[in-house]
Each structure stands twice: as C-alpha cells, then as structure tokens.
Amino acid sequence: MVNINNSKKVEKNLFEQLEKNGVNVNDQQRKLITDRIESILSYEPRIGVFGKTGVGKSSLCNALFGKDVCPISDVEACTRDPKETMLNLSGDKGIKLVDVPGVGESSDMDEKYAKLYAELLPELDVVLWLLKGDDRAYASDENFYKNIVKPHLDQGKPFFFVLNQVDKIEPFREWNEDKHEPGANQFQNIDRKVQMVASFFDVPSSKIIPVSANEKYNLVKLVDEIVYALPKEKKITVYNQVSEEFQSEATGEHVRKSFLGAVAEVVETVVEVVETILDIFNPFNWF
C-alpha cells in the first residue's frame, strides 16, 4: 500500500528535503504548500456506480473495498435511492461511494432516475456503469447512456463499462474455480462480449472491463484503470481505500509518483527554484 495518509509526516520530510537542497521557504510559502498537501490527502472522491437492477452493483462494491458498504438483496431491487457511503480513510475523511438506483424497473421510475442521474453526474469523479455479463438486452442502458450520461463524458469525466458476472458466460462449466478464472473457450466468449458491448455503445473496447465480483476476477485490472483515469491529485485516496489484494505494485508506484508530481507543482508555483522539484526529490523516498 502507498501509505501517504499522514500529512504532517509528509510535510516534515518535504521541508527537510527542500532545506537540504538549499531551497528557502518562508512562512507564507510554507502555509500555501501545507494547505495544498492537506487538501490532496483529505480530498473525498465520489465514485458513482450505475446500471440497471440485478447487475451486481452492491456485490462489486463490497468486493472492491473489502467490507459491506452496500446493502445486498437477492429478492428485490434494494437500492431505490442513491446511497452515499463514506469509507473512512483517516479520521472523518475518506472516499464517497454513491450506489445509484438501477434503471429498467419501470418507465415511471426511469423518468425519475433520469433526473437524478443528470444531477449526480457533474459531482462524480469517476463513473462505473455495470452490465451483466450474460445479459442480451441493453436497450434501457443504451437510452440512459446516450441521452443522460454521454454528454458529461464528452467533457472528459472518467468512465468505464464494467461487464460483471462474466463467470456466467457460456460455457460457464469451464470456469476454473481453483484459479478463479475462465477456461479457454469461455475467455474467448468473454472477449467477444466485450467487443460486442464496445460496438453497441460505440466506445473503445479498453473502456469495457470484464469482471466477476463473486469470483474476484479481474478486479486488479478494474482498480488499475480507475486509478490511471483519475487526475493525479485524486488517485491516492481511491487507491488507498481499495482492498489490498487488488492493489498492483505498478499502480502503487504510479500513485506515488502522481502524488509527488502534484506536490511538486505547487512547490514550483510557490517557491522560485532553478531545478525542478522532481529533480531535487529524486531518488529520495520522502513518504
């Protein structure tokens, strides 16, 4: 885990390193820098989890974050109102997970949800739209995506289709339960489904992430894609809150460098230096 949650320790190490390299920082500059560091580490990202009823939104959230953050019901649609769950990172800060009611229940409810989606989207840092792996009907998803969601994505908001429950894609008997991964023929069919969904929604196949929440399949890939899509100052809070088993070493290093880059930008803005701050820090591991 990239443990950069202690802002006081980060600030102490930062200013010690600046001093060692002859960079003078006055009180006003110090405050500007520390305020920025604390702002990054205390930021509360909001992840929206969208999709119609029964695609496994709550199960995926529970798997990713290693705790029961969303209610689950096998009997009925249990999420009829947006449920914003705070996952504590340190103190009262953390990540806000917005489990959004699913579409496709009824035309009356969908009309209500369309307004809700339009209000929520501008406030979210990343949007995950879940589809069921063995589902063949995406008409309601298509309508909401093209008319409600896509206009916001065109402005650059990070977005992914998550193809969930791919362990149910035929031939599902090939699923390797010991390794928690698909068999050869099943893998090919999963890839075909990814290409079909990409074509149906007119998005790059790289935006379609096949997973199985129950089997914990490909969740590392999903975490990687989310983290890389976020602005550098927002990566750390999301990454640190995900269950450790889905944190790849490469993405952890990417998060570390991104955080360093975000801090370096504010230091270079506040303090006049000849060298870039990244050159000064490298290879000093200051957190």
Give a written overview of the molecule.
By secondary structure, the chain is α/β, with parallel strands linked by helices. It has 2 domains: 62 residues, no CATH class; 184 residues, P-loop containing nucleotide triphosphate hydrolases (Rossmann fold, 3-Layer(aba) Sandwich), CATH 3.40.50. 46% of the residues lie in helices and 13% in strands. The protein is built from 10 helices and 6 strands, in the order ααβαββαβαβαβαααα. Helix 2 packs antiparallel against helix 9. It is elongated and about 65 Å long.
The number of helical segments is 10
**Proportion in helices:** 40-55%
Alpha-carbon Rg, integer: 21 Å
| Count of structural domains | 2
* Structural classification: alpha/beta
Q: Tell me, rounded to a whole number, the average pLDDT.
A: 80
> Which geometry do the CA atoms define?
elongated
- For the largest sheet, list the strands in their spatial order: 2-3-1-4-5-6
CATH homologous superfamily annotation of the largest domain: P-loop containing nucleotide triphosphate hydrolases
Number of strands: 6
Just give the CATH class of the largest domain.
Answer: Alpha Beta
- By CATH, the architecture of the largest domain is named 3-Layer(aba) Sandwich
The main β sheet shows up as:
6 strands, mixed
> Roughly what fraction of the amino acids lie in strands?
5-15%
Unreliable spans are: 72-80
